[in-house]
Write a structure and sequence with these properties.
With 450 residues, this protein is mainly α. It has one domain (56-449). The chain contains 17 helices and no strands. The model is unreliable at 1-50, 215-229 and 436-450 (pLDDT under 50).
Amino acid sequence: MSHDRTTTAPVPPRTPSTPTTPTTDDSAPRVPPLSGPVPAGLAPVAPAPVARSVAPDLARGMLLLFIASANVWGYLWSDAGWLDAGGRPAGGSSLDHLVDGVVAFVVDSRSKPMFAILYGFGLATMAARLAARGADRRTTRRVLARRSGALIALGLAHAALLFAGDILAPYGATGLVALAFLHRSRATLVRWFVVAYVLSMAAGAVAVLSVLDSGSAGSADAGAAAVADPATLGYLPTVGERLLTVATATSLFTVSLMFVPHVVVGILLARAGWLTRPAEHRRRLGQVAVVAAVVNVVGGLPYALAVAQVWRPGETALGVAELVHHVAGDVMGLGYVCLFGWLAAVWGERARGGALSAVAATGERSLTAYLLQSLMFAPLLSAWGLGLGGQIGTAQAAVLAVGVWLVTVAVAAAMHRAGRRGPFEVLVRRLAYGRVASAAAVPAAGRATG
């Protein structure tokens, strides 16, 4: 594999942003380079008085709805065990199965690729911002490495305290790997995409085959034993279990380069300006969204029907359908990103007001909104809390997920009106840039509007 580098730094996007997501920092303004050498404690760029690109924030805001819908059933358990397809609790109603199928078709294996693409987009945009201010590549990587390290630490804390399905730590670790790609040529990025995707698919195939060989994973007996445990455990005994789960997942995802292909796609999107200047790429964004939707129907519908208990295939057929479902999800993750970019181009200024503005405000504060979801889900659903996870079905859980997302939207909109960033965005920003440097570079007006 070639490791050639581009001869020029990435071109910064044309619109401003502040680092307000778990993994991205996008839509940066064109800023004159710093004069003289860049100090070690390079601070973030103060927001410029130009319009912020809506497309990335709109995509992140809607992504949080997908994440809530995907995560909520992970808090559920049932004495009846797990269903083979989709891993949902067995014993649900026909409505539960219908909702499971819809969520599998629309969300499962689609939100994580979408998240990773936006993550890569943000990394590339942050690198462009720093380059525009005169930062060399070493300084840029140091800042982004600190940011990724902060996400890993925050993710591990999130897992230990609340949710074993944390995504911050895996993406933070992927960010450290992605630092090697930021200044590569387009041809090299494409080669890395192919290599990483083959490795990640091989890892996925091995996982599915191991399940098929065991012949017991997902069975009612094994599921009953697994899901009966939470009700017998308190909060403290489960802390170590959650931490071990996310640490193991982070290691496996990093070694298998699971999210690297999507991060590479995000870097390429940032260079092309598809999300920062969506009006210029409206036709192409729409074309990709349509093609992805077709792929999702062909590749994702069979597995969704199995999850909905409409189709009951054998183990081998189910394993193949699941693999195809994952591949279709990778394509649909990009399709969703392009869809919301296209909608931002079509809606134009209308996306800056009303409900769309509230969703975009949530995208600006998506790290805070993501963690706020767990702050609501865990006490309500966990056995150590109110224990509703053992009492409701997946249809009710889906309604709860939408309600929790709406609460985060309301909170983000209120913070936007008050001119405040999310507290966890501020924390990660401070860890990445340093307390003194961050405060010095962002004046009071900038902090109020970021």
